[in-house]
Amino acid sequence: MVYELLNEHGLCNYYTLNARPGTAQRVPVRQHKFAFLEEEPIRRRLIQYEDDQQVHVTFYIPNIHCSSCLWLLENLHKVDAGVQQVNVNFSKKEARVIFIPGQTTLRKVVETLASIGYEPYISLQDLQKKKPPVNRRIFYQLGVAGFCFANIMLLSFPEYFSGEHHMDGTMSLVFRYLNLALSLPVFFFSAQPFYASAWKGLKHGFLNIDVPIVLAILVTFVRSVTDVLTGAGAGYFDSMTGIVLFMLTGRVLQDKTYKGLAFDRDYTAYFPIAVTVVKDQQEIPVQLPDVKTGDTLLIHHQELVPADGILVKGKALIDYSFVTGESAPVAKQMGEIIYAGGRQLEGNMEILTIKEVAQSYLTSLWNRDEMQNKEQKASFIHLLGRNFTWIVLFIAAVTTIYWGIYDTSKIWPAVTSILIVACPCALLLAASFTNGHTLRILSRHRLYLRNAQAIESLAGTTHIVFDKTGTLTGKARSAATWHGRALTVDEQLAIGAVGSQSQHPASRAVAAVCGKPANTEVLRFTEDTGQGLQGWAGQLHIQLGSAAYTGAKEGEGSQVHVNVNGDYAGYFLLSHTYREGIDDMLHALPYSLTLLSGDHDGDAPLLRNMMGAGADLRFRQQPHQKLDHIISLQEQGKQVLMIGDGLNDAGALKQSNTGISLTENSNNFTPASDGIMEAAQLRRLPAFIRLCKASKRVILISFAVSVLYNITGLFFAVQGKLSPLTAAILMPASSISIVLLTWALSEWAGNRLLGDDSHPRA
Amino acid sequence: MSVIILLLGASLIVALFFLFAFIWSVKDGQYEDDFSPAHRMLFDDKTDNE
């Protein structure tokens, strides 16, 4: 076991570090499981850096979960001497391994990792693209803006406080030119994200909110530079750098990413990187994209079927839960078609591929044209900002005409100060801070949205589509009910003991209701693939399995028949349990609902009752039918929110206006979506949507408050009397009050709608 | 008065030092992972074959 291995290498204090070191077990690794890592093209793709001395490679290890993992992995060099150094990034669940090429190989390192329970997740995605390097530019920009703003503010104080008694001439000049110098990095470097976004908007003929902001930054800068150069004044450098700093902060807050969560997984993240091809009696590992139609693939126990194929050898028990969310495995006979995405549960099998990986039924969903053109609706902030800009421009024009008549020398100061004081920066601030807060409040309640856009689209939802299996029902949790003669306690415990010997979900469910005694030994246990299992527990011989296996009569639904000492005792009926609170949640949703289930319609009356008479219930839906249904709803002008979990929902999730995928634990892989929600939180969906709507109101309220500041500023500006001091008071006052207001309002809304029983994310 | 300008220069240099310290810490990846470093320092090295 793991302990022995660790003990050999003196790593025993692994167990002293953490009272519950977790589930890591020494996993038997199939001998040639990682043989593909010796293939040069695959090896080259995975390795980041290589020379004679060392090789660098980073693995994604989903099993990393506690401080002991960290310790164990970073001491890997004691287990494998060829390993030089391991560096774990806990939040990304990544381990960067440096090893010496002469002493160990990539394959050996991976095998060692797998044997101590930290099997790296190597998928087809690793083969296709290199991860983009982390972009830290915005943090540098933020740091520079903060530095310049603080210094400019301090250097401006003497000017403001000197009042009527003007300060020493040279001193004043030094301060002004220093300010000018300090504002340059902000203008040319820190403000770049706004220029880029404004330019992108203009190129697409769309006047987004960054356009007036860039205009304001530009006008402030030009006005300030001319003021300083001509000696007319100190300029508005502090206002300009301050607003850039605040807006950058908002942007960082809003663009917070969740490390360890990925929102854009396609099928390549699920599929293995290589597969064993049988050719002339030889087993060769082949990169997945190189698999051709007509190749014979050897699928090992617990491996994923990567391409559609016909079963030609061995027994197949396929778990399609990845694809459909349905956990009951399906037995396939020789000659039947096995679709890609299923996982083989029983032993090895060989399949003859009939389609290439990219053409397979499941993967072809990603290659459909409709998927690409998900329309991006412009945020209401841009529309609001545009109206705001027109009003400001109108005021500027009126002021120009007025001063043109009365005093032409005042046109320049008046118009520039209007543009300085009335930039929609406050609106942008309100929006980005509110969105940032809302994302954080939602993440505290385990709904992780991809970006701020998702808040708005969630708030605009008019129609909700649910998947059934794995979404409304628990994925693994199926309840078993007993139908048959009364069982004695001993019999029940014996059934539990025998059932718990198997990994089959049905026997697990049976074992769960029977309870498993700690010390009952099961003797002569055998399992018959796809049929049933039997064993002796104490004096009782238990057989569990299909009707054919136990010799019982075939019945309705998923049943597990039971023989005790050779006599038929009855059967367990398995049914999915609906998640807690689903009923109330569905009743609380004031939207039209649709159910798209890949399953049979056995639960239709129950679902009808839960979802109401108006709901559209569709059963036996294929993945492409789900996708088509979403498209047809959208053509009716509906804003569709899709909630699903499996790969079969992936197309629909991507197509819908907001797609949220459920996960039972955050290590799980979720298909591409706009948000990832922890499954138990599904009952909170109505509150989540209300919070998103509330966040829009918070933005509007904060914006209204900021307009008051704008009006005050405009009052001075139109008269051409806006002094740098007034601007320097108004700008931080409005910015800080908006930041505080958005925070207070969003927290209040979050508390009211979601309660405060949240657990901060570790 | 020129002493103020001298002080100004000194304070700017100190501030610049902090700015570069910040940039360095971001570049170094110190904000990438807030779990491992804090726990790593708690592990004892029983053997010293590092």
UniProtKB/TrEMBL annotation, chain B:
Alphabetical list of InterPro entries matching this protein: Cyt_oxidase_maturation_cbb3 (IPR004714)
Which Pfam family would be a valid example here? Answer: FixS
Q: Which domain of life is it from?
A: Bacteria
List the protein's name: Cbb3-type cytochrome oxidase assembly protein CcoS
Q: Name the encoding gene, please.
A: ccoS
